[in-house]
Amino acid sequence: MTTKTDRTLRRILTDVLGLKPGQVDAFTAETGLFGHLPELDSMAVAALLTEMEDRLEIQIDEDEIDGELFETYGSLLAFAEAKREDA
Amino acid sequence: MTFEDWPCPRPGGGTGSELAVRFDRDRPRRLLVLPALFDEANRMRRLTIEVLRRLDAAGIDGVLPDLPGCNESLVPLEACGLDDWRAAASAAVERFRPSHVLAVRGGGLMVPPGLPGWLYGPVKGTTILRQMLRARVLSARESGREESLDALLATGLEEGIALAGHAFGPQMIADLQAATPPKGADLSEIEQDLIGGSPLWLRAEPDEDRAQADALAAVLAVGMLA
Question: What is the pTM for the complete model shown?
Answer without folding.
Answer: 0.93
